[in-house]
Amino acid sequence: MTFPSGNPGQNEEEASRSGGAPPEGALKDSLHTYSVCMLCSNDGGTVDDSVRSVLQLSQLRRVDVVVVDNLSTDGSEKTLRRMKDSGLISLIERRCTRGEGRQLAFESSKGDYVLSHMDCDDIFDAEGISSLIDRYHAEFEGKAVMTKKRDSPEASNITIAPRRVIDLVGGWRPFNWGEDWDLWARLESVGYYSFMQYPVGSPPHRAIKVRTERYSGLSRGFQVRVSKYADAIRMGRRVFDPGEHVSIVQKGALATARLRVRLAAKSILPVPNPNFAEFESSGGGKRASYSVCMTCYNESSTARDSLNSLLGQLSSDYEVVVVDNYSRDGTYEILKEFEKNNGVKVYQRRSSRGEGREYALEYASGQYIIANLDLDDTFPPLLGEIVGRYHETAEGKVLAIFNSPPPPDLETGWVQNVTIGPRELIRALGGWRNLKLFEDWDLWSRASRVHKYAWTSFRFATNVTVHPETRSAYGRLKNRYERYHCRLRLGMKIFSPGEKVGPSQRLAFVAARMSVLGRRVLAGQDPGFKSLDPALYVELRERPNRELEVPPEGQAT
């Protein structure tokens, strides 16, 4: 999309006759492309000047402008439609929260870099924005940067970021308040956020509108506070600053917000760093290279030994992220001790194993993810060697490493394994899905479809725990049911041709079939995928013990 030259005061017809954007040689920067993503909601008094002030940037940069209008009714929509019809902007008209609007604009934009939080109630200075971009490339290239006029009563901030970085953390989420803070906090958690001092000498804003109508009237002001507080609670953000005076009205709004969140059918994952402060974070802290992502449920008897065996072999390049499925045996209290004394990141989430691994992935900041090392096992000091061999033999892929020996537990169809892969690749594959079992097989299968999967065999865990619940007749029946249920959801075969099927297996199979009736089979994986395909095997190292057996296909979950 190209934009006409001219000034903000010329009409669309004149702009259309002006011959489009200036020739590439006249641009200050013809290498990069930029998308300005704007929101509008009844901004009739400023929308024309606001958008035209942004369009002037096309005289200096290769720019496209995307505006999302929240179904305005004050004439803003007519102004924006005329601009769209003249080819000046891309326009989306939809009822949405601010976070949804920003994500819509982002998904519809085309630039290598995105400029956001530049909305239709403010007027901008093209030279100031261009200077801001120059400073970004000189000092902050590759990161997401926020600059804000601190003394303004409004959120007069501008965010500049490469498209890939915003994609990395999943973009904006559907908050109506604090959607920018939520994005920055997630960016900061993975080492991609920096704050830039507002450029007073060449400011990017010419005018900032103060929207006092938001709090006009007791009822309206109370509703706005409830909405703000509810969004803060949902993202895990502190509602009030320490020592802040809280009025009776604010306390009432907070109680109402908490009730609203509790009754909501759908909640949003809190940010990994709820104490994030946008003005204090420079993004200069060291980012972990590797995140060990662990899940647990009622592992109090093994948690200490497991974490001690792991932490004793980790350097500062590693972080440990643990998601506890609301254990009831004291596991969580043990984890909090390690959080306090050893810096382990600890979270509680009601989740299946697949969801737990996905939560850990979201909280992780490392460039590489090491998953499936869970708290029911202990680990010899071999992780560093394994990681080094991964880079030598399977760099850029998802590598499944099967613990051998001991042999797999044939009754439960399981063998201990660990998965290593680049964080961005795992996210691009869709991460882990909501499965109690076979969640790792599911991820490997999707990686294999894009030729990004490999496997090997290496003894990395000792004292592998066999859970007592699988030893009883009921426990085995329940385990079979869960296995069959997950295999059916993945489109996998349950029994091999000619396999003898016992009564308990038939019972578990019928129950699993009934439970998945009407549910859509998960898409994206290959039901015929063989996790132990010899063609996908890599030698992690020259093993001294050549007689180690490879677990037979079908025994690895």
Model description:
This protein is α/β, with parallel strands linked by helices and 557 residues long. The protein folds into 3 domains: 12-208, Spore Coat Polysaccharide Biosynthesis Protein SpsA, Chain A (Alpha-Beta Complex), CATH 3.90.550.10; 214-263, no CATH class; 290-471 and 516-536, Spore Coat Polysaccharide Biosynthesis Protein SpsA, Chain A (Alpha-Beta Complex), CATH 3.90.550. The protein contains 17 helices and 16 strands. The strands form 3 sheets. Strands 3-2-1-4-7-6-8 form a 7-stranded mixed sheet. Helix 8 (218-234) crosses helix 9. The model is unreliable at 1-25, 282-286, 405-413 and 542-557 (pLDDT under 50).
| Mean pLDDT rating | 81
Query: Mind telling me the CATH superfamily name of the largest domain?
Result: Spore Coat Polysaccharide Biosynthesis Protein SpsA, Chain A
CATH architecture of the largest domain: Alpha-Beta Complex
Q: Beta-strand percentage?
A: 15-25%
What is the general shape?
A: globular
Class per helix and strand makeup: alpha/beta
CATH first level of the largest domain: which class?
Alpha Beta
What's the structural domain tally? Answer: 3
What's the short version?
This protein is α/β, with parallel strands linked by helices. The protein is 34% helix and 16% strand. The strands form 3 sheets. The chain has a 7-stranded mixed beta sheet. Strands 12-11-10-13-15-14-16 form a 7-stranded mixed beta sheet, sandwiched between helices.
